[in-house]
What we know:
By secondary structure, the chain is of the alpha+beta class. The chain has helices at 3-15, 21-33, 42-46, 49-55, 60-72, 78-90, 95-104, 108-130, 138-149, 155-171, and strands at 178-179, 182-183, 198-204, 207-212, 218-222, 225-229. Mean pLDDT is 76; it is low at 178-230. A hairpin with a 2-residue loop joins strand 3 (198-204) and strand 4. The strands form two sheets. The chain has a four-stranded mixed β-sheet, with helices on one face. Strands 1-2 form a two-stranded antiparallel ribbon. Helix 5 (60-72) packs parallel to helix 7 (95-104) and helix 8 (108-130) runs parallel beside helix 10. The chain folds into two domains: 3-105, no CATH class; 128-229, no CATH class. The chain is built from ten helices and six strands, in the order H-H-H-H-H-H-H-H-H-H-E-E-E-E-E-E.
Amino acid sequence: MNHADTVQLMYIAYYGRPADAEGLEFWAQELENVDGNIEALIDAFGDSVEYTERYGDLNNEALITGIYQQLFNRDPDEGGLKFYTQLLDEGAQSLSSIAIDVLNGSTGEDEIIIDNKLTVAKAFTGMIAINNVPYQSEELINSAKDLLSQVDATEAQVESIVKQVFSLLGSIVNIPIDHGDIDVDIDFDFDINSADIITDCFSSDNRVSISLIGTDDTTVECPGAEIGLV
């Protein structure tokens, strides 16, 4: 897994939202600087105003339950809740470190859900980056969290949520969704295998090519336009 994906998963596990482009770039570089050793920076990642404002008043059981809900859309089993709560109570591990342990221990359907949430989060981060969408408002952050919370283990739901990302950026931010030099209808059939950070966008007649990092070729059929995710 590349550093950007690792950081995106950190945002999902700990904050329950897709990363902002600046934060993703910063922490991916920090991870590169420590040769990919996530334990070397996880506590710094978790020490933030956002954490204090959102989770500072919760008890340790509620914090552990929140990690499981953000990752897997479910409560922890009794044994896991007791184990991680005790670690937190005793100060043996930080919440951010526990979040990574829970993430890395995922199997079966939980692992599929994580992969699907990563796909949606990467698409979201890429879309706000290419359209220069401010990602600080409480409304947009909460809407992004809500979309991630709906992602399950099915491909159909991933497709549905990615469509809703387009709608979200059009309705909440109230700006046109820009793909190069043309605007496209946000209500279209979207078939996506994976998505990563959008790095470039250009148009030629009625075709727009969006360059993505480490992504298989994907085609989106739109009314009057064809967007190739390359």
